[in-house]
Amino acid sequence: MSADQKQILVVEDGATMRLFYRDVLGRAGFAVEEAANGFEGLERALLGRFDMMIVDINMPKMDGYELLSRLRGEPALRATPVVAISTEAGGEDAARAYEAGANLYLVKPTDPDQLVRTARLLTGSAT
User: Fold this and answer.
1) How far apart are CA 85 and CA 95, in angstroms?
2) Kindly report the CA angle at 10 between 6 and 13, in degrees rounded to 5?
3) 86-103 pLDDT tens trace
4) Most buried by CB count within 10 Å: which residue of 45, 66, 88, 93?
């Protein structure tokens, strides 16, 4: 990992989806760390330094809405861009995510090119 490589934290309970994000973002030049649930994601976010986070909404133990609220309650993490991702395409789900603090809401399955463009935009990366 180079010093200027952008760090992305993926908080997703599905192993297949975590692998997808790691593969797509890793090939685009990002360093990817993973967390399997909201509690683990919050812990990693507090201990690390990330340029962006991807948060799944539907997770056991702590869902993405709760995680977003907790992230935004932490002064050191308020400015970190967070993309909420869910299988729910309904407008009320997106509204809840934005209300909880998401910078962007994407619906699964996420297009790989869109994911990379979004990561580059939100991290200010020309990778």
Assistant:
1) 12
2) 170
3) 988 778 999 999 999 999
4) 45
